[in-house]
Amino acid sequence: MARKSRRNKAAEQKAQSAQNTQNIEILNQTPTAAYVRLSLENSGNETEDSIQTQIMLVHGFIQSRPDLKLEDTYIDNGYSGTNFDRPEFERMMQDVYAGKIQCIVVKDLSRFGRNYLEIGHYMETVFPRLNIRFIAVTDDFDNSRKEDVESLAVPIKNMVNSLYAKDISRKVASLNEMKRQKGELTTTRPQYGYLIDHKKHCYVPDAETAPYVRAIFRWTLEGISCGDIARRLELLGVPAPCARCEKDSPRQLTGWNAAKVSRILHSSTYVGEQATGKTRKAVYKGMKEKVMPKEEWIVRKDAHEALVSRPDFERVQSILDDMCRQVKEQTERNAENRAASVNHFGRLLFCAGCQQEMKYTRIKRMDEETPHLVYSCSSLRGMCQNSPAPVNEKMLMILVMDQIRNLVHVALDYGKLAKQILSSEDSEGSMISLQKKMDSLSYRMEQADERRTGVYEDYADGLLNAEEYQYMKEHYISEKQNLQLQFQETARQKEQLTKKANAAIKLSQNLEQYLECREFDEELVRALVDKIYLGGDNTIKVVFRFQDVFREFQECLEGVTKSEE
Q1: CB-CB contact of 60 with 32 (8 Å)
Q2: Which helix (H) or strand (E) holds 376?
């Protein structure tokens, strides 16, 4: 084999050193979060402060710093900086508390927030306690630099940002009021079935969703309920309201339901009316929207193209009013029946197929004085592949009480086994075996000490030379250390087994009183049962709150048995 030259060896060593340095830098990189936010006023508009611009700037900064590693990007699009009730901000802080994020980078301080007091709380209390690094790129702020933390410029900037939010909120409110008086739109998100014509400041029909709006009204006129219409739209794969918003929006809600259909049917927007001033909101105070009374709305007729004729719309309103009146009357008639039929399994019963909570239906037969409940899967028809057949409440009560009695029998068996293990009379039991093993290990450690002492005496008498003495001394020291580790592990197993056995005994004693309990007891069920799963193959699985006690006892016992083998 050809020998390498000294120059090649030096080059390889230099390259290896550089690679090692790079690996160390990668290992020392700080997991970093990129946080970007766009306010309510600018949401959806392409400006110099748009979401994509912020992302590019923050990502570029993180990539340019070898000590930072981009862990995740958190985007709050369309949220005011005056309060910190933002979904992505909350998700980021959860990752911070979990230790996943150790550095936060934002474009500037105003993107983090515009509430002077809240920002001060995070920057002066939360981040220092959690040892979180905070960087605002364009403001050239880094809390790892002492001069930045002690500078007066930062609190002044935060105060200016807070005052700016207050000023812009008032200006936006005044502008919206002017738009309302002129009959112009004040929203950036159109009504379902429409798009916004920004030149004419009005709605125009959306070719994709407008036909479905017309279909919803037509189906209602044919006598189809809101729930059945929602199921039809789901099966057809029709985009739901809010599903056409930005994909990155955390407030995006998908899927149809009766409430969404009802909101469409009640909206006069579809006959060409434009109603503004429905809500009021002070953005800079972080106040929630206040719904204004109808008398204060500004309504302009024939503001845009109608999707539904007014006679059809009024007929639909009449149908909805009749439905509401019928529901109200039926609710009043069934008040007595609802009081008599209590859902004894509320929030305990789940479908094993879709994992959703089972719904219940009241059924009253002619030969019954009071109605009974029947539980069934709450998923839409055909959506759950392993949906159980409807189950009568009385049958479910019997099955659950049988499971509880089975649990009690198992608990008593575990309790007897635990008592037997802890009993000193059981000469072949695991506890006695562990104690014997500890005694044996203790004796062997004493023997190792005596042998080490004897080796030294032999060395002092000249029977062993220095090399032989050193070798035998290290041998007995190592032997004792191994024995000590075995002793500590055996003592730990004994302590764990004692703890688990006592827990099993205590629980079995508490459950013994329910051995003969056959009548359904709701308080008992809620005390013992965590969840009940019903399967499509007519199976029932009861998850008890305390079954982990017996499982841990059994696993501990099995571990001791394996170690003895």
Answers
A1: no
A2: strand 372-376
393-398: long-range contacts (C-beta < 8 A, 24 or more apart)? 393/344, 393/345, 393/360, 396/345, 396/349, 396/532, 396/540, 397/344, 397/520, 398/520
Per the CB < 8 A criterion, the answer to whether 97 and 64 are in contact is no
CA–CA dist 192, 341 (Å, integer): 40
CB 70 within 8 A of CB 63: yes
To which residue do tokens 């209390």 refer? 125
SS3 482: helix
The helix-helix angle for 226-236 and 258-266 (nearest 10°) equals: 110
Rounded CA-CA distance 141/154 in Å is 8
| Residue-wise burial string across 47-79, b where 16 or more C-beta atoms lie within 10 A, e elsewhere | eebbbeebbebbeebbeeeeebbbbebbbbbbb
Which residue in the block uniquely carries the two structure tokens 């239906």? 361
The beta-carbon contacts of 209-212 under 8 Å, at least 24 apart in sequence, are 209/238, 209/239, 209/244, 210/307, 212/238
Q: How far apart are CA 560 and CA 290, in angstroms?
A: 65
The amino acid sitting at 157 is K
Distance CA 212, CA 16 (A): 65
Paired with 68 in beta bridges are 30
Q: Which of 120, 59, 116, 122 is nearest to 89 (CA)?
A: 122
Token pair in block for residue 420: 């037997």
Q: Please list, residue by residue across 504-535, b when 16 or more beta carbons sit within 10 angstroms of its beta carbon and e when fewer do.
A: bbebbeebeebeeeeebbeeebeebbeebbbe
The secondary structure of 28-60 as a DSSP string is TPEEEEEEEEE-TTTTT---TT-HHHHHHHHHH
- Check if the beta carbon of residue 136 is closer than 8 Å to that of residue 147: no
pTM value surpassing 0.85: no
Number of H helices and E strands in the chain, helices first, is: 18, 17
134 contacts 123 by C-beta, under 8 angstroms: yes
Per-residue pLDDT 10s for the chain (565 aa) are 445 555 555 555 555 555 544 544 455 688 999 999 887 545 444 444 578 888 999 999 999 998 899 999 999 988 877 778 889 999 999 999 888 999 999 998 888 887 777 888 888 888 888 899 999 888 888 988 888 887 766 666 656 555 555 555 555 555 566 665 555 665 667 889 988 887 777 888 998 999 999 999 999 999 999 989 999 998 888 888 875 444 334 334 458 988 899 999 988 889 888 776 666 655 444 455 667 777 667 677 887 888 999 999 999 999 999 988 888 887 777 666 666 667 778 788 888 888 888 887 777 665 666 667 788 887 766 677 777 788 888 888 888 888 888 888 888 888 888 888 877 555 556 777 888 888 888 888 888 888 888 888 888 888 888 888 888 888 888 888 898 898 888 888 888 888 888 888 888 888 888 877 778 888 888 888 888 888 877 788 888 887 788 788 888 877 777 766 5
160 CA to centre of own chain: 36
Fill in the amino acid letter for 554.
Answer: Q
CA 128 and chain centroid, separation = 26
